Amino acid sequence: MKKRELINKLAETGLRVTPQRLLVYEIILKHNNHPTAEEIMAYVKKKFPNIAIGTIYKIIDSLIEKKLITRVKTDKDIMRYEAVLSHHHHLYCSKSDIVIDYFNQDIDKIVTDYFNKNKIPDFEIEDIKLQIIGCFKK
Amino acid sequence: MKKRELINKLAETGLRVTPQRLLVYEIILKHNNHPTAEEIMAYVKKKFPNIAIGTIYKIIDSLIEKKLITRVKTDKDIMRYEAVLSHHHHLYCSKSDIVIDYFNQDIDKIVTDYFNKNKIPDFEIEDIKLQIIGCFKK
DNA sequence: GTGTCTGCAAATTGTTTGCATTTTC
DNA sequence: GAAAATGCAAACAATTTGCAGACAC
């Protein structure tokens, strides 16, 4: 995605396009390791050494509110973030805290079809994500 | 589950059966709302007014280590806990921080069969859980 | 120029740690 | 009696808040 597009996406939401906010958005979008707030901070600091961690959190909150990014839940007690692109699942490494994106439209369809035929009583499904826990073979 | 069984389960793990630990285990087991540490604390305090929050965390850690309970992460940055019974999934309410257990062996089988036939390259699957996000119809 | 955003520091929240005392086995 | 668990307080880590000055629109 070009920088111009990012700027437009930000502007569309009504958020002001500040260089810090743009950079944070860019990092979360391009970094495919689901960075934590501290990791984002470290990157931003290279360009803006005076950035405050509070500002990072405020920017993150504003992006979540405008649905440009989402939180990722891991077992550990730290939040990670990702930019929502297309629908996907997560591979969780049971040995480390690593989370990898997993795209698979076949399984999406299988699961969606199943729940279309078999509704959960009194519950309106908005989204279904798979947490695939395991480990990487070396 | 009878109290006697709980005591046995605890004793089997090698953990010492103290009244505080037994009570915490009982609460997590019977409370089906995935209580937080603070919620557990509030319950335990009725019987042991001097209980310390640090003790609650130590007990929780010991139960997790012995695999009697597991962590559940929600959108908010708070840990919740549950006693692992049989394999199940979670319904996440998108409006509140509520998490409900969801048991369904049909979908378990469908998903497992799929991944038995379609392996993920370089990844050894240990478990698959569905995060079903949506909201409850009133 | 107005209202939003940043940077800074202090406050808050959830969790962990160290140690003396008590309890389980 | 030895090892482990509790209670308490202090430490820590992640996140939030309040506010003055700076910046986007």
Describe the protein.
The structure is a homodimer of 138-residue chains. Chain A has 138 residues and is of the alpha+beta class. The first copy, chain A, has two domains: 3-82, Orthogonal Bundle (Arc Repressor Mutant, subunit A), CATH 1.10.10.10; 89-134, Dna Ligase, domain 1 (2-Layer Sandwich). Chain A has five helices and five strands; from the N terminus they run ααααββββαβ. The first copy, chain A, has helices at 3-12, 19-30, 37-47, 53-65, 105-117; strands spanning 69-72, 80-83, 89-93, 99-102, 123-136. In chain A, β3 and β4 (99-102) form a beta hairpin. In chain A, α2 (19-30) crosses α3 and α3 crosses α4. The first copy, chain A, is globular and about 50 Å long. The first copy, chain A, starts with a helix and ends with a strand. The mean pLDDT of chain A is 89. The A-B interface holds A 71, 73-75, 77, 79, 91, 94, 102, 106-107, 110-111, 114-115, 118, 120, 122-137 and B 71, 73-75, 77, 79, 91, 94, 102, 106-107, 110-111, 114-115, 118, 120, 122-137. β5 of chain A pairs antiparallel with β5 (123-136) of chain B. Chain A binds a DNA duplex (25 and 25 nucleotides) through α4.
Oligomer: homodimer
Mean pLDDT reading of chain A: 89
What's the helix-strand series of chain A? HHHHEEEEHE
Largest sheet of chain A: 3 strands, mixed
| Approximate shape of chain A | globular
Helical content class of chain A: 40-55%
CATH uppermost class of the largest domain in chain A: Mainly Alpha
| C-alpha end-to-end distance of chain A | 32 Å
Task: Give the name of the CATH architecture of the largest domain in chain A.
Answer: Orthogonal Bundle
Number of strands of chain A: 5
Overall tally of structural domains of chain A: 2
Rounded radius of gyration of chain A (Å): 17 Å
The CATH superfamily label of the largest domain in chain A reads Winged helix-like DNA-binding domain superfamily/Winged helix DNA-binding domain
Largest interface: A-B, 33 and 33 residues
- Return residue spans of chain A where pLDDT drops below 50 for at least 5 consecutive residues: none
Discrete helix count of chain A = 5
Structural class, judged by helices and strands of chain A? alpha+beta
| Fraction in beta strands of chain A | 15-25%
**What strand order characterises the main sheet of chain A?**
4-3-5
What is the CATH topology assignment of the largest domain in chain A? Arc Repressor Mutant, subunit A
